[in-house]
């Protein structure tokens, strides 16, 4: 990471799907005015030593062999002021749709999960209260279809949707160093749902027309009553 003159904390996510060697470097921008900086590296709250340095950069080398070696690695530079940068070593994240999946009864819903790296295995779950139920254990081809497009892309299709299918679903990708999950929310609307705004507008128009009619009838009656009173006055 290149640390600039602003001194704002920097962050970088480093995906690590399998055991490997990682080199992390903090480097000061050439325009930085931080002089004689004292550098400290930490994993979480534990101080670790850097393995190499130049006048403006400091590097640590890691051999990541299991999940416990993932986490946050921070370089802290102290001088006239203190600046820092954080590396997040983590299992690859799963990409997926952020917004709820919205569809209608009788239709189908499609949820897609992707990663930048090949996963060893994919799993799909549906929630039942606080419990996650593996879909492959209740898989019915007329309802659920799981399709592995590649080692990095997996999709779930739910067919013949009903209101009972609405809820939260999860996909999980397994890697050598751990797993990643992605949450999906499915909303199933009734077929009549798109008509509700139209029905509401029609109801408002009907109320308005009825009010106008009543007002006109009332006005005409009042006018006739006034004419009768005028005729009686002239007769008198």
TrEMBL record:
It is a single-pass type I membrane protein. The chain crosses the membrane at residues 198-218. CDD domains: Ig (cd00096). One of its GO terms (molecular function) is cell adhesion molecule binding. It is found in: Membrane. It comes from the Eukaryota. Residues 9-75, 92-187 form the Ig-like domain. GO terms for biological process: cell-cell adhesion. This is EMB protein. It comes from Erythrocercus mccallii.
């Amino acid at each position: 990471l290149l640390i600039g003159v602003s001194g704002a904390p920097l962050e970088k996510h480093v995906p690590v799907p399998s055991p490997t060697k990682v080199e992390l470097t903090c480097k000061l921008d050439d325009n930085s005015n931080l002089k004689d900086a004292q550098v400290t590296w930490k994993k979480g709250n534990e101080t670790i030593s850097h393995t190499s340095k130049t006048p403006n950069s400091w590097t640590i080398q890691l051999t990541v062999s299991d999940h416990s070696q993932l986490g946050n690695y921070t370089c802290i530079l102290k001088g006239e002021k203190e600046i820092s940068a954080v590396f997040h070593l983590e299992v690859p994240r799963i990409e997926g749709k952020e917004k709820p999946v919205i569809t209608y009864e009788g239709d189908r819903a499609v949820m897609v999960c992707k990663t930048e790296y090949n996963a060893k295995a994919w799993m799909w779950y549906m929630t039942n209260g606080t419990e996650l139920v593996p879909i492959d254990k209740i898989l019915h081809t007329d309802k659920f279809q799981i399709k592995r497009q590649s080692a990095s892309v997996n999709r779930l299709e739910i067919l013949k949707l009903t209101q009972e299918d609405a809820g939260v679903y999860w996909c999980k990708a397994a890697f050598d160093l751990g797993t990643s999950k992605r949450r999906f929310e499915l909303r199933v609307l009734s077929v009549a749902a798109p008509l509700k705004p139209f029905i509401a507008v029609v109801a408002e128009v009907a109320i308005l027309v009825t009010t106008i009619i009543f007002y006109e009838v009332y006005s005409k009656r009042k006018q006739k009553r006034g004419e009768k009173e005028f005729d009686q006055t002239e007769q008198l």
